[in-house]
Amino acid sequence: MTDTTALYVYALVPDRPGAADGVTGLDGRPLRLVAAVGTGVAALVHDGEPEPFQGGDEQVRRWVEEQSHAVTTVWERTGSALPMTFNVLVADEPPPGNGPGPGPGRGAEQRLTDWITSQASSLTNRLEELSGRCELRVEITLDRPAAPTTTLAQGTAATSAPETRSPGMLRLLGKQREQQARNAAGELADTLHARVRHRLLSVAEDLRDRAPTQRTSDETHVLSAALLVRHEDVDAVGTVLSRTRAEQPACRVRFLGPWPPYSFADTEHHFQSDEVAGEPPGRAPR
Length: 286
Known about the structure:
Elements: E1 6-14, E2 32-36, E3 41-48, H1 57-78, E4 82-83, E5 89-91, H2 108-118, H3 120-130, E6 133-143, H4 167-201, E7 206-209, E8 219-230, H5 234-247, E9 251-259
Antiparallel strand pairs: 1-3, 1-4, 1-5, 2-3, 6-8, 6-9, 7-8
Helix pairs in contact: 4-5
């Protein structure tokens, strides 16, 4: 037990003595495991004050990357993890009535282990379910200028003699061609979405849609998803994406990972609101 007043929680992991040895977290803070005796579950933490980490965008990105690196290192050593969001803090419990009383409330470490013990069955089951699994992120878009389309041919005759058109008419025709390209790309994207989703689910154990993170003005969204995949099936996902790209060269594919299963550490395994200090701005990583 330490004299500090809070624990910053990075993840819940199988209790493996030594798994956090030499691992550092935010701003180089040394990490340790807090085990809930008899549960087989431990929390990856650093000791600190009950104040959330706040700063500019660049500083927060650096902290998120440091947290991601720490969780990934321990995940690789333990084989499973339930990563936490950024800025999850468990503070010392105040005395009864938030004032002078018969004695102090529970310390942060006791609160943390009590919570793990109360959730031991579900936590253990989920850690076992995620053992040997990783998360992959897939994002697919269509390059509209490169996408095949038949609707553009409809405007060819109207624009075959641009010298006879006024500037206003040329602008109008240009907007019409752009809209036709968007419509054609949208129809193709819908077809590709259904096809790729089906293929990915044939090699992944779970798929969760995500908001697109990257798209230029000339791209049409096809699919953005997190995949839960067994380590031995990562190459199979790559094969699906390569096949998609070969069949439709206008596809742009972004394929990231493997990472700990951030998108699959279900919310019911996070701390109850009365156990948490600070407001998480977003799920790590990236």
